[in-house]
Amino acid sequence: MSDDLQALWRQRLSYLVHSGSALTDRHAAPFIAMKDSFQRRGMKIVKAEAVAKPLVEENHDHRMYFCHLSLMYQGKEGMLYKEERLQERVFDENGDWEHYRVEEEQPVLSPGSEDIDSRDPHESTRFSYNRREAVRYADYWWNSYNPAYREFEVDCTNYISQCLRAGGAPMRGQPNRGKGWWYSGSSWSYSWAVAHSLRWYLSGSTAGLQGEEVASPLDLQLGDVICYDFEGDGRWNHNTIVTAFDENGEPLVNAHTSNSRMRYWAYEDSTAYTPNIQYKFFHIKG
Fold it and tell me: What is the number of other CB atoms lying within 10 angstroms of the CB of residue 186?
């Protein structure tokens, strides 16, 4: 990490932990939103660390790197929490900013466009969802990749599907990629790996893996799923899984792309966030 970048991160970490400090760099908005979010929840960041690892260096003025950001924070009741994120960042003449990856355009499930209830005769569609195992899997693989599955460039939905599968969710619909929810190693359904498709599968499935939409994040349980439409344009582009709750009963979530553990569910400090963001809260039946 260059001297300039080290100095910038020292300023950011000091801002997050200490009152009275300010940020002046052009990409300060996510860090300001982060601190504001913690304060609104009655949480105080007591320790912040950032470890950088070079990803690729194209030239002297443009470099990409991974930043492992760790935040230790304390609630009003004294409970300590640790949030972690692995950000892919760019440092160039325009400053230092998070590189947000988006899914490539491909066919997706939408309401009424596919037979989402296609049954797989080789596996029962009735199951008991093991929330503990889904969360255990989510915590174990939050910052790495299970070699039993393909790693996608945008991996958020693939990761969530793996967590649901670890919790016992049955697959069905193979080999039609536009039907059901399944993974076979060499192929997979759109609902397995595409955020928009999983959102509609959860709301439309009537057997096996099913999601019941609830009105509030406070109604969710461990192992439940939150879907995000950052632009509010009807295209759902991210999913997370609930792995814990803070002292206010608010969900803390794990995700891939960007890899996160025990992150506050609302994503107000994400570079993808817009004021038009829409959420769907799904309680997994079973």
Answer: 7
221 and 149 together in one domain:
yes
- In tens, the pLDDT along 60-74 reads 556 889 999 999 999
Q: Over the stretch 161-200, which tens digit does the pLDDT of each residue have?
A: 999 999 999 999 999 999 999 999 899 999 999 999 999 9
Distances (CA, A) of 193 to 50, 109, 275: 30, 11, 26
Find the distance separating the first CA and the last CA of the chain, reported in whole Å: 48
- If asked whether residues 81 and 137 sit together in one domain, one would say no
Q: Rounded to an integer, what distance in angstroms lies between the CA atom of residue 264 and that of residue 244?
A: 10
Same domain flag for 277 and 137: yes
**Which CATH number is 251's domain given?**
3.90.1720.10
Measured distance CA(32)–CA(29) in Å, rounded = 5
Q: Nearest Cα to 177, choosing from 190, 165, 168, 166?
A: 190
Axis-axis angle for helices 3-17, 29-40 (nearest 10):
20
Domain CATH number, residue 28: 3.10.450
In this prediction, residue 110 carries a pLDDT of 55
Q: Is the pTM of this model over 0.85?
A: yes
Give strand pairing partners of 172: 181
Task: Count the Cβ atoms, other than its own, within 10 Å of residue 148.
Answer: 8
| Domain boundaries, position 223 | 131-284
Q: Is residue 153 part of a domain?
A: yes
For residue 19, being part of any structural domain is answered with: yes
CA distance 97 to 107: 31
Regarding whether 88 and 19 lie in a shared domain, the answer is yes
The pLDDT tens digits for 100-123 are 776 655 555 555 444 455 454 444
Q: H-type helices in the chain, by residue range?
A: 3-17, 29-40, 131-140, 156-166, 190-193, 195-204
